[in-house]
Amino acid sequence: ATLRDLLDLAMVESSNTLTEMFGRLVAIARGQEPTFEGATTAVLEGVASLGVNVSGTVLTDTSGLSLANRISPRLLAELAALSASDPALRPLLIALPVSGLDGTLLERDIEPGMVRAKTGTLLRVVSLAGVTTTADGRLVAFSVMADGVPAGGAYLARLHVDEWVNSLVTYSAAG
User: CA geometry: angle at 154 spanning 165 and 22, to 5°?
Assistant: First the structure.
């Protein structure tokens, strides 16, 4: 499979194994060791080279599974915006699941076909980052995170995240 095909699979299926592999490939390409530390260092260097502020970001893996990871919603929204505006990053945007159509957004309560985004769910965190077009035709990048979700509360948090994203889809500056 091509890297593009693997990226599509990793995003749609939310494959932690593939994202770890991509981290190792980035490490090798940037002259780092293909280890957790090398991958996370290389990924942060790569993101910073795009002009995105990575200060305060802590990565201990590239799958997003580590509870020690710390990443801001702003950083994720900036990456989503860049993927929509930079042709070199467009494959990342295209690989994201589409609401109501595929992957981790297939059965979310989000307006079908209107959102491309990546989900993130851990024990006490629910997040969604991507792009949508508002009712008045503006393309917007977003990232929303619910942190400190009570045990057993991920489903309810996800419903609130979906409701917030739907408010972006239906937003119109004209009222």
Answer: 75
